[in-house]
Amino acid sequence: MSSQQTPSSPHGPADIADEHGHGHSVAAWAGVAVCLLGFLILCLAVVFPSWTWGIVGGVVILASLVVAAVLARAGYGVKGADGKPVGASRPKR
């Protein structure tokens, strides 16, 4: 393969910036941020032994799944509210 060619996929030339499905969305980032907060609370509950904070940390971790799902359904996920991939020049299937 020469330096002028780019790898191709069944949909045409591959462009890493154009790929979707890797979680680069507001919903994914918000879910991860809330989950990290839950793990921080849970870690502090282990360092400073507290069942109450341990339960709170676990609930926050579970809430991160809800946050990500709600935002994805609202159209902030990898797919828009209409179910189609968001972004410019996505490969058509």
UniProtKB/TrEMBL annotation:
Keywords: Hydrolase, Membrane, Protease, Transmembrane, Transmembrane helix. Pfam families: DUF6704. One of its GO terms (biological process) is proteolysis. InterPro entries: DUF6704. The chain crosses the membrane at residues 26-47, 53-72. The keyword Hydrolase applies. The keyword Transmembrane applies. GO terms for molecular function: peptidase activity. This is Membrane-bound ClpP family serine protease.
